[in-house]
Amino acid sequence: MAQGQRRLRRLRRGARSEAFCHHTIQRPGTTVVPDATQDDRFAANPAVVGDLRVRFYAGEPLRAPGGEPVGALCIVDTEPRELTTSQEAVLREMARIVEHELAADDGPGVGAGRRVGGRGPRPRGGTRQGAGGQPTRMKTGLEM
Which of 24, 81, 112, 133 has its CA 20 to 30 A from that of 56? Predict the structure, then answer.
């Protein structure tokens, strides 16, 4: 897990114009890059040719309630792969959930350790609040 977090930090350090997510938010729909070394947009990208070795990318744009792009929900891997139709549908649905949470933001006070909308502590990795406020595991259907 710590290695994944270090890689994510290094991935974020690049120029925005080089970022996979920048390409994702420029157009509607899911962006899927099965093998970044074979895609002219990304073949020379530092995240691809450098020590991160990004090969696969799938991203869905995230939009504010007014339609403005605010980021992307993405999946990254160091191995080339394809995204199935059902996995793409799950990624789209997860992006809509994130957009819903962003729209529910009630302003100041949202930050580290807080859920969007200020509704208490953020559940850790893969959990959500279930009945009685107890965390429950989410099934994403994105096993790869």
Answer: 112
